[in-house]
Structure formats: structure tokens, C-alpha cells
UniProtKB/TrEMBL annotation:
Sorted UniProt keywords: Chaperone, Metal-binding, Repeat, Zinc, Zinc-finger
Span of the signal peptide: none
Record protein name field: CR-type domain-containing protein
Organism of this sequence: Gonium pectorale (Green alga)
Ranges in coiled-coil conformation: none
Domain CR-type intervals: 117-198
Length: 348
């Protein structure tokens, strides 16, 4: 739990950095093309070049690998060279450095934590850099040598028959995984350059996040290999229900029940808001189903928390199913009075 309200998170150190991260996360999800790739292939798909051990007959982990294998041989002829982008036109051997994969973690917040933001610590399983070999995977004191199968090119050539004809296919050398080198594996990580560890991460959740928000924490995914950049950590936000309050974006909704007498005469009702209990003035003659608006008692805007939504209070009027003898007498007197004057708020 955190102490609401933390409205001005911009003043806190590192807040700007967090908002930058949020901005990137939202960018990923608002771009339709990217979102399609994301939904289909996850973060790895967006990064294009990574995660791919995709030689022929191997399962492809992202769409670019497919093209790369199919048209890989044409890269040398200049045919595909101009297409740019992560996967295309990569020359000779696979880059020795490989970026780390992105991580994903679910985080459930209390209703008010999401409204006002909070700090949370989360434990993340991930692959950390191997300290023994410093992500190279090479046993210290040994030196990598040229791969005997591909002679250091990182590629092997084979013919592939397709309905369009026979293609010369170039794929990564299976012996050295496209790196052009073989080496003695590090004892600690087995040549992976990374080891599995749990890391505790301090996360600053900004005010105004909603269910389905995705926070991106840069560099907290898996470590890269052979000096490659670390992946990012994506935090998927879900929010617990509140017993009285409901949320629709920046707007809070709640119900208040008053007696029919209070509806006629007006009253003060105690209403729960995200800021705590507030006395709300119910004007005389309030109709059942009326919605009263409490301005700026809603959810702070993500990224500019001094802007706030409203709180809508839906008024329910309680009509008693039974009356005491005295009450009944009074209501009957009221009825009589109405039939004489033909005016008034009652029409029985
Ligand atoms: Zn190692
Ligand atoms: Zn090789």
C-alpha cells in the first residue's frame, strides 16, 4: 500500500524517466502494426533481429527470420539489401553480440494505488549476466578459434526447392550458431553468458495507470549475450475492485442512497471518494436516478497528475415498503393537503 495522494510525482527523482518509459510502452500498444506483431510474436517480434536461431527446419521465433532464411541468399546480390530493418540484408556472419529477451510480469494493484501511483518491489526471474565470463560464454583464459565448418563466415549454403524454382539458401552455420567461431564454454554458465537469477526491482507506478496498462522498465529484462544490450521488462497492470467505487478511465462512479424525505427536502450525504469521505450536498427536489458531479475528485491524468477527472454520484431514492402508524398518518395528511391545493411535489 502507498500513501495517497501522491499527486505531484514529477517532483520525485526519477519520475521523468518513468514517464519516458510509460510513453514508450504506450507507443508500442497504440501503433496497430506494431500491436499486431506484438500480439503474435511478443516483444521479441518487435525487436526484429533477436531470439532467432532460425536456420531451415528450425522453428521461427519472429517474422523477420522467415524472410531472412528465404531470401537470405539474395542479400549478396543486392536484391534485398535496400529493405533495411532489423532482419533484412544482414551480411556474412551473425553479430557476436545478441540483445537480451524482454521479460513480462503481472502486477495487481489496489484500487487507490492505481489512482495515485505507488512504489512497489517485484521479484523477477531472469537471466543475468555471467560474472565469470562477462557474458562472452568463453571460459576465461581460453581464446575462440575459427569455426571449421563455415571457415568463419557463419553461414552455410544449401539448395532449396520451392514451387517458384530452386533457390540457393544461405543459413546460419549450425556448428557455431552463425558466429563464425567456436570456443571453450565457461564453466559457470555453460557458454550461455548468462545465469538464471531472481532480481528484486523497485518500480515506481505513476498515478493514473489503468487496468491493461503496460509499463516498460528499460534494461530489466534478460541480460544480452556477448556484450549485447539487456532486454526490457514489461509490467502488465491489473487492478482490484473497490467495494464502493467504480472506475471508467479518469472518471469515478459511486452510488448514494437517500430517503424519499431527504430527496424532497434536500440533505447532506457522506460520500466515499478517492480522497476519503466527503460531505455532498443533495439539493431539495432531487429526482431518483439523478447524477451529481463532484469535479476533480476523479483519477489523475497519466503523465500530468495535476489534471484530474470527476466523480459521478448516482442518487438512489429509498421508498419505504412499510410505514409506522404515525408516518402513515402524516403522509395521508400530506395527500389531503395536496388534493386541496392541487400543487406540490407529490402526485399520488
Ligand atoms: Zn559464463
Ligand atoms: Zn560455423
Amino acid at each position: 500500500m502507498c500513501e495517497p495522494p501522491i499527486l505531484d510525482v514529477n517532483k520525485e527523482p526519477g519520475a521523468e524517466e518513468v514517464f519516458k518509459k510509460i510513453g514508450e510502452a504506450y507507443e508500442v500498444l497504440s501503433d496497430d502494426t506494431k500491436k499486431t506483431i506484438y500480439d503474435k510474436y511478443g516483444e521479441a517480434g518487435l525487436k526484429g533481429g533477436m531470439g532467432g536461431r532460425g536456420g531451415p527446419g528450425v522453428e521461427f521465433t519472429n517474422p523477420f527470420d522467415l524472410f531472412e532464411s528465404f531470401f537470405g541468399g539474395m542479400g549478396g546480390m543486392g536484391g534485398m539489401g535496400g529493405m533495411g530493418g532489423g532482419g533484412f540484408g544482414r551480411a556474412s556472419s551473425r553479430s557476436r553480440t545478441q540483445p537480451g529477451e524482454d521479460g513480462r510480469v503481472e502486477l495487481q494493484l489496489d484500487f487507490l494505488e492505481a489512482v495515485f501511483g505507488c512504489s512497489r518491489e517485484i521479484d523477477v526471474d531472469r537471466l543475468n549476466a555471467c560474472e565469470v565470463c562477462e557474458t562472452s560464454g568463453v571460459r576465461p583464459g581460453t581464446t575462440p578459434s575459427t569455426c571449421p565448418q563455415c571457415q568463419g563466415s557463419g553461414q552455410v549454403v544449401s539448395a532449396m526447392r520451392t514451387p517458384l524454382g530452386t533457390f540457393q539458401q544461405v543459413s546460419y552455420c549450425p556448428r557455431c550458431d552463425g558466429q563464425g567461431q567456436t570456443f571453450t564454454a565457461c564453466d559457470k554458465c555453460g557458454g550461455e553468458g548468462r545465469v538464471e537469477e531472481v532480481k528484486r526491482i523497485s518500480l515506481k507506478v505513476p498515478a493514473g495507470v489503468d487496468a491493461g496498462s503496460r509499463l516498460r522498465v528499460r534494461g530489466e529484462g534478460n541480460s544480452g549475450r556477448r556484450g549485447g544490450e539487456a532486454g526490457d521488462l514489461y509490467v502488465n497492470i491489473s487492478i482490484k475492485d473497490h467495494p464502493e467505487l467504480r472506475r471508467d478511465g479518469m472518471t469515478i462512479h459511486s452510488d448514494v442512497e437517500i430517503s424519499y424525505v431527504d430527496a424532497i427536502l434536500g440533505t447532506q450525504a457522506k460520500v466515499t471518494t478517492v480522497d476519503g469521505p466527503v460531505e455532498l450536498k443533495i439539493p431539495p427536489g432531487t429526482q431518483p436516478g439523478t447524477t451529481l458531479l463532484m469535479a476533480r475528485r476523479g483519477v489523475p491524468k497519466l503523465g500530468s497528475p495535476t489534471v484530474r477527472g470527476d466523480h459521478m454520484v448516482h442518487v438512489r431514492v429509498r421508498i419505504p415498503k412499510s410505514l409506522s402508524a404515525e408516518e402513515r398518518k402524516l403522509v395521508e395528511e400530506l395527500k389531503e393537503l395536496q388534493s386541496k391545493t392541487k400543487v406540490g411535489p407529490f402526485r399520488f
